[in-house]
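Methods — Computational structure assignment.
A single polypeptide chain was analysed. Its primary sequence is given first, followed by the predicted tertiary structure written as structure tokens.
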Amino acid sequence: MLKKRVIPTLLWKDISLVKGISFDSWRRIGSIMPAIKVYNTRDVDELILLDITATLENRDPDYESLQEYSAECFVPLTVGGGLKTLDQVRSLLRSGADKVAINSAAYDRPAFISEAAKHFGSQCIVASIDVKYHKDGSHECFSQSGTHPTGKKPVDWCKELEQLGAGEILLTSIDRDGTMTGYDIELIHKVSEAVSIPLIASGGAGNPQHMLEALEQGGASAVAAASIFHFTEQTPAEMKQYLGNKGQPVRNINASTK
């Protein structure tokens, strides 16, 4: 049985980590390197590091900084932000990323996903999808850090991305982001039922019960979170202990410990 993963998300803006609500990431919360060193000691399964301004500024990822961060990161590291070319993907992997997250460029040129999967393997390619909820009950995918409506429906787009060769999906609810009110379980469930590749649920985690709901009711393979770890005293190890005690298969946790 595949283990369920708990994955902290780090939002990289300029030289700092930031966090806000619904993609309004205005609050600076520290530096990247200390956060990585702390997470190395807290039983995380992976880390996600997203450069949230690279796409909007139309620039390359900061490969030099990534080399420094990856040298101190002892868990698998997914890096995203601004990726549009195979050369950029190659440079990120050479700089120490284990996987890359591709978002906006996939809408502009879906074949980019196929080309990247062919050259580097599907296991390296995470399709990142940011979704907003509309008052009529529908969901829509947004690009450009959640600023540009694409007209794509999440379920249809996830199916297409899987067919193109993506190895994993990072599904983020823009509305729930930073609120700590719980994941969008309905959205997660619809997507998980539609695809066979692993699904990482993101946006809204405020306590371990939220994570359990995303895994049990939503069918997610992993849960990503940021605010819960930045702004509360709850740790990834505690989340995994709770999930293990509730019967979820997690790594490095004795589920019998209360």
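Note: Residues 119 and 231 are 39 Å apart (CA to CA).
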